[in-house]
Amino acid sequence: MAKDTNRRIKANLRNPEFKKRLEEAKGMVQQGKNADAAYHILKHMNLKKDENNPFLFNHIPDRQLAEMLGIPNPEGKRKTAVFNARKRLKKERFGTTKNNQRNCVYILTNPSMPGLIKIGKTEKTAHERAEELYTTGVPEPFSIAYSIPSQYPEILEGILHKKFKQYRTNKDREFFKYSADKVIEWLKNRPSSIGLYDIEAL
């Protein structure tokens, strides 16, 4: 296991983009911003050993990454700033069990697109769809704000697109200049029969 970790670390260090982000994160640590530093580099990494997204840097365990960043580990405690940042990112990237269910409608956000959300449907899981979109050239990975399994995902997607059409940035794209929290609130308070709604009734 140690050999495998060393191999992944060396592969990362051969990548100029990783080295750049590592130096940026180390600078944050020097300013006392340990949590920001860990988040800054982890958001571009595979967070789990079995996550193999080729567009992200190799997974590095918490202790080794904390040492690389120069983040202190008081009294040998396991839960460093890296542990907490990884936990936060796992929730953002993979979400809950819902996000691992197929045939769903999702709401995605991306730090490189502040103020915008993407509302779409997929026959895959929300996580798989978010990973697909990251391969299209956007500079940052998408995060899953919410996903909801649906028996009628194309109908539910159409309802949401019509409900929030005034915030849509382009009729041919699924991006909306609106709050993800407000869409989620609307979804959570929706009638239970929404999957059968006639879109024209909205």
Report on the biggest sheet: 4 strands, antiparallel
Any idea what the shape is? Answer: elongated
Tally of discrete structural domains: 2
Can you give the helix content as a percent range?
40-55%
Mean pLDDT: 83
* SSE order: HHHHHEEHEHEH
Q: What class would the helix/strand composition place it in? A: alpha+beta
Strand content: 5-15%
Radius of gyration (CA) equals 19 Å
Separation, N- and C-terminal Cα atoms = 56 Å
- Order of strands, widest sheet: 3-1-2-4
Note the quaternary state here: single chain
Strand tally is 4
Number of continuous helical runs: 8
Low-pLDDT residue spans:
195-202
Mind explaining what this structure looks like?
This protein has 202 residues and is α+β, with helices and mostly antiparallel strands. The chain has two domains: 2-94; 97-201, no CATH class. 43% of the residues lie in helices and 10% in strands. It is built from eight helices and four strands; from the N terminus they run H-H-H-H-H-E-E-H-E-H-E-H. It has helices at 2-13, 16-30, 34-42, 62-69, 81-94, 126-134, 153-163, 180-188; strands at residues 104-109, 117-122, 143-149, 175-176. Strands 3-1-2-4 form a four-stranded antiparallel β-sheet, with helices on both faces. Helix 2 runs antiparallel to helix 3 (34-42), helix 3 crosses helix 5 and helix 4 (62-69) crosses helix 5 (81-94). The longest helix has 15 residues, at 16-30. The protein is elongated and about 50 Å long. The termini are far apart. The relative contact order is 0.10.
